[in-house]
């Protein structure tokens, strides 16, 4: 069976490097030179036209595309879908952070189901992201939504669970976390970021963060493995490197970031590709081999 991993880079993560906004064309050239397969553009209709500038510039590249949006209703989802249909030739999926009230979980699920109905009719794949401040901020709420929408595909950014639920590293192991195990069975894409129980994004190279680096590598190993078990031949999985600018990125007292997020994005890319290669070569190797 031929299955493929495609690593994407977040354009939101590229908006401000080294305290400045660089030329968009230069950023895209850097992304292509690093052999990323695609780019993710954050769609915020009420904000600046920055996302539109990214999309215009993407026309001059060979990069594939995902879109990320945070609709609050079906009405606010429709313009995102309309934009997505203009890019069907290179669009992999639309990622939605559902900013919905979960106090009525049935109504929340119905709205998401309506989004799926619209997306399918437009030929657009839809993934629902796990994210703080949304209907998917708690694992229990996502599990409840799956009861109503069993075919819901999850965009797994599990850094939000780690910090939001104050998980310990062992909680990222589906063997001991049954909720996570269920969610991985429904995960259609993964996002790359290392978090801790207190910070949503931590530098990779700090010694105190190494247990978290190891835990997230295990999570990606398990996520890739479970996706491969159910994927059709020739399917392609997206792994999105999404290391956000400040305030996601930790800074010193002068506001300078504590790590080089571009180099960390490249490191995430290498880690993901290494784990995938181990799965290609050995089927399901021991975790120690996959994350060495």
List keywords for this structure.
292 residues, alpha/beta, 8 strands, 41% helix, disordered C terminus
Molecular structure report:
The protein is α/β, with parallel strands linked by helices. Helices cover about 40% and strands about 15% of the residues. The protein has ten helices and eight strands. It has an eight-stranded parallel barrel, surrounded by six helices. Strand 4, helix 4 and strand 5 form a beta-alpha-beta unit. Helix 3 packs parallel to helix 4, helix 4 packs across helix 5 and helix 8 crosses helix 9. The longest helix is centred in the last third of the chain and has 22 residues. The C terminus is likely disordered.
